[in-house]
Amino acid sequence: xxxxxxxxxxxxxxxxxxxxxxxxxxxxxxxxxxxxxxxxxxxxxxxxxxxxxxxxxxxxxxxxxxxxxxxxxxxxxxxxxxxxxxxxxxxxxxxxxxxxxxxxxxxxxxxxxxxxxxxxxxxxxxxxxxxxxxxxxxxxxxxxxxxxxxxxxxxxxxxxxxxxxxxxxxxxxxxxxxxxxxxxxxxxxxxxxxxxxxxxxxxxxxxxxxxxxxxxxxxxxxxxxxxxxxxxxxxxxxxxxxxxxxxxxxxxxxxxxxxxxxxxxxxxxxxxxxxxxxxxxxxxxxxxxxxxxxxxxxxxxxxxxxxxxxxxxxxxxxxxxxxxxxxxxxxxxxxxxxxxxxxxxxxxxxxxxxxxxxxxxxxxxxxxxxxxxxxxxxxxxxxxxxxxxxxxxxxxxxxxxxxxxxxxxxxxxxxxxxxxxxxxxxxxxxxxxxxxxxxxxxxxxxxxxxxxxxxxxxxxxxxxxxxxxxxxxxxxxxxxxxxxxxxxxxxxxxxxxxxxxxxxxxxxxxxxxxxxxxxx
Length: 520
Fold this sequence. Notes:
- By secondary structure, the chain is an alpha+beta fold.
- Helix content is 29%, strand content 18%.
- It contains eleven helices and 21 strands.
- Strands 3-6-7-8-9-10-11-14 form an eight-stranded antiparallel sheet.
- A hairpin with a 6-residue loop joins strand 4 and strand 5.
- Helix 9 (414-426) packs parallel to helix 11 and helix 10 (429-465) runs antiparallel to helix 11.
- The longest helix has 37 residues, at 429-465.
- It is globular, with a radius of gyration of 23 Å.
- It starts with a strand and ends in an 11-residue tail after the last helix.
- The mean pLDDT is 96.
């Protein structure tokens, strides 16, 4: 799947939350309807079989309740993609990433092989279809998410290269698969953000920590030996080595090396598909930096060495994340809706807010909130420039019906209404953007207000009705959160219906059979 990820550490956000967010994008020429669901422990399978891999595994007997955004049509698998569990751990899976032939030759992907020529069927490894279902219900911290995924990779392998993020109230961890069974992971620095397109991203790795205390790094236990045996270290002298650590080795590999150089890709496709997205996100979040802006910036849209993590100019909000993940290189010669540049430049690079986005989930873990109200999943369906995100408390047992997407097109569906608005408004972008911008601002404001008002209501419940806001299973608190979600969704639905009416009217005025005179 083609996606874009943005991760923000707690000291880089406006309220101290951790934020992990990702656009889930379909492949070219396809659109994938999504729903949002709450999964009770009793509904979680104990035996799981992947549709694509045919891999069957046993799952633990103690799953947590969680929410996620699976496919509306489950015939090709669950594809849970993004969610938060009852331990207030968030997970987004996956950012499909690139690699190179040397890595795939050293540790081939584990692909499904059907029975043929007298040979039995061979299941594939784990992949995007499976990961939220087989990991999120069983972890209580972000770091545990990395450990569980790493163990599953080593046992079953994977049939694709992926990047996965986990968040809790304190930390964000990001793990990247390397070949069929190997992996690396790095903790996002608290004061940094990570702008991650479909390319292996981590550009600095400390093997001593990963194989020791694991404070900021984790990896496969045999990673350095495997790298040495397969000549995967490409460090040249001091290039890519931290000053003062030249010559220090861990099992034959530099103690600090650049995984992007060793395991990633450096191709023309990166220049038009991946690097521009990282460049644009960084140029917005570091507007004052001469590295990205000014007469002679260090990095441009085709640059291969844009840093994996950076300290932003200013603290980042959920609203900022939504806007960036919806962007189309706004204000540059690369904006397909813009008036700058040429037809060629406006269609040169792959957009962040692309037409085939299925959903975007911004997963917020609020450390200042009571345990039972700490997790919020901001959910947007359809193409980013035309949609909004709904702020939904995750500690619930039911999701409003507006987010349960039917197979047929319906204006009683958040997903289908957003798809209709985008398809109608795209052709006459400037005629509709005032209405769309107003809709986005008002509904995002409603989301912020819902969080504030519900926090106050839950505090009153705790004071007057004896509710325990630090008990994830408190029935009064869960009911209050479900009520808040339902009321906010009702507001968004009314606003979305009005927006659809507006863009339909504007598009109808410009039909080819229009005529500039009325009846006589």
